[in-house]
Amino acid sequence: MKQRSSLNRRHFLRIVGAAPLALRTSVARGLPSSPRLAYVGSGCGEIYVFQIDGPNWTLMQIVACKAPASLTVHPNRRILYAVNQVASHQHLPTGSVETFTLAPDGRLAAFSKTSLSLSATLPRHLALSPDGKRAVVAIHGGGAYNLLTFLDGGLRPQITGILKESGCGPTALHQLSAHPSMALFDTTQSRVLTSDTGSDRISVFAVNETSLTVHQRFATDAGSGPAHLLLHPKGDILFVANQLNCSLCSYKYDPERGRILHCIQCIAEDTGGPLALHPSGRTLYTTGGSEDDVIQAWHIDRTTGRLNRLQSWHQPSARSVAITAERNTLLVVSDTLDGVLRFAAEPADGRLHPPTLAAEVPKPLSIATLSDSV
To answer: DSSP alpha helices (H): ranges in 120-272?
Structure first.
């Protein structure tokens, strides 16, 4: 049965605004707590560091960072990477990646800032390989991908490969040229799945220490604008949120051959934003919509790969989504609310409880979490 709930800014702030952040608790009791640490990038040129005890978030630190559009924690849990979505760095037309070291308590210390390749403007996303040895940066403005390899245990990124893209789409406002939006390593770690909003395509790249090469091109519907990617933990279903036509598609993927095989399903309503997956692998969360953004929970049929909607929440603009790997909590960055919404999720089926405003952050752009478990 579908459940549809509505939440606008005035109503939400009336619910939670009277209580201090430390007292804003979830209505769901007995559910697992949030991860221990959260890092939230702000469009004001900062990263906010929070210590988390269940629904209670305590601000520990604010550090300077130019324009943190994407945050990623290294598997060794000692490094944070921030992709700066800027058009110039050191008076050159390029973006940058900042490296921060993590203290035992999670506090950040700036370590280095790496320039991307020339014309690599407005980078949007960094995908880190599960082994932490390399990363791929999707460069939205410059229409390219940069391959980074790491020295000193991940502290010093170096550009070892560049792949320049071309192409366009029918939507003049957004598709005059290629605009890579996201990259994602598959379960083999030897291939990267990518989305190109400007040219209506998903690609599979072969990757090693020094190069990115095209392994497959897969065209999406004209004007769809694929942006956000998520791969099922089994590695055989790829979910793609199309930003321009607000649709959601699922594809059968063969990780052994590195091939997108066919479209399983396309859902053309209230989607197109960031994606997240319940730790059980049985529930997909989507965001986006043409007017007011909608957070939806979908049951994943593992036999067919098809989605059935469980629940919908209307809420103001969701800029980013993160769901913890160990906990049943969905975290949604909202630039309209200037903060992070916390949804407790049922362990059994992933249904969401009413949200709380976990933290206030001006102009939030991105989020990364770090669990207290090793």
So the answer is: none
> 8 with 303: CB under 8 angstroms?
no
Q: CA-to-CA distance for 329 and 31, rounded, in angstroms? A: 9
Q: Which amino acid is at 261?
A: L
Show the tokens assigned to 308: 């059935």
Single pTM value for the model: 0.89
C-alpha 89/C-alpha 106 separation (Å) is: 28
Q: Specify whether domain 3-21+36-370 bears CATH 2.40.110.10.
A: no
Report how far residue 181's alpha carbon sits from residue 183's, in angstroms, rounded to the nearest whole number: 7
CA angle 354-13-56, nearest 5°? 60
Question: What's at 41, amino acid-wise?
Answer: G
- 3-class state of residue 12 by DSSP: helix
The residue assigned the tokens 């929070």 is 50
Separation of alpha carbons 19 and 251, rounded Å: 44
For 87-129, the pLDDT digits (tens) are 999 999 999 999 999 999 999 999 999 999 999 999 999 999 9
